[in-house]
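Example 3.
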Amino acid sequence: MTEKKHSILICDDSAVLRKTIAYMLKDWGIETIYEAKNGEEAVELYLEHRPDLVFMDIVMPKKSGLEALAEIREKDPSARVVMASSTGTKKNLMAAIDEGSLDFIQKPFEKEAVHTVLRRILKGELD
Amino acid sequence: MFSRHFGQFLLNERMVTPGDLSRAMARLGDARPLLGILAIAKGCMTPDQVREVSAAQKREDKRFGTIAIERGYLTAEKLEELLSAQKNEHVLLGQILVEDRILSHEGFLRALELFREKSGLSDEGYDALRGGDTDRAVSSILAGQPGGKNPLIKVWSEIFVRNIIRFVDPAAALDPLSERDLKDSVVILQSMKGDREFVTFMSAKEPVMADVARRYTELASGALDEMAFEALGEFLNVSNGLFTVNCSDRGVELDLQPQEQVPPEDPRICGKPDALLPLLLPEGILWAGICSV
């Protein structure tokens, strides 16, 4: 389905959420998926694999999603990160934008919302 | 959602057997409402009047409504109101039980009255519960609870119940008659801190929790394993997340804390919460609560 082989990193402390997004992505032909269960792992996996896109939860143990976002963007300003959180408060939304998040998806996820964000950010790179 | 609730009540009161109830529930989808039963449920006609009109119907070859108007039991307006009333599943359940001769017309009326009396609901609350109006049903359950008048507690309760209906069971019902029993319960708890501080929790016996997890995500197998706990925690997190968004819109910023599995004797949930919601699900009651700290 994809013209280019994309890789995506999903960062969420909930295995249920990670698997749910991973199944969606696989349905859309994205085969290379990395999973991180906390902010520390998110930074490590990002630097190791440099995925095309990151879905990042905000509330995570060890290092929050916002801290991980800042660290990733500091080391790679071209990193494409979408915050995906249940806490879509104004405070979190503004903090995410300040740190360079490209978009914000509110949990619970609607499949369509995830697909729209994916198509918009990987514009021209997906069928 | 009220049909299951009403059915459970009939069972608890030993007015029906589990077999009677499951046979009647299975036929709900095919049943067509009868005007006489509807008229009894709405308090427009007595069981005697309905029996009289039904008997006359066999002799006179006229519609039930026509005879009821001729005999002065219904007005044309009242008939119109009954005909346009929404299909209420609990009335259909009563109708099937009356048709099967498990309940008499009087028994059905008595059951409705008894339910209302025992639940202690206001007229409005009873109508809301009966008509499936979730937010009004939540308000009626909260009336008399410590946080009943607190707008944030009410919002949290409405969001939680709507999410149960949306993600877990469309037929979920609030059951005002349930008695809380924490013994052997599984409890998932999540705090929220910021401009205010709240502790929220959901608790139930193991089969109920396992079933909630399985209904919430197909990744859970139906056993109360690690994935089930993940799913339960995520459900609470998602519901609380929507609550924090709502609070943020009202100028109250809250941060979600990690979810915890705690023993039923955890002091944070043993007192009287600001709101305590008993949700009747297929496997039993799920309790959800919120306490301001």
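The longest strand of chain B covers residues 186-194. Chain B has two domains: 2-126, 145-292.
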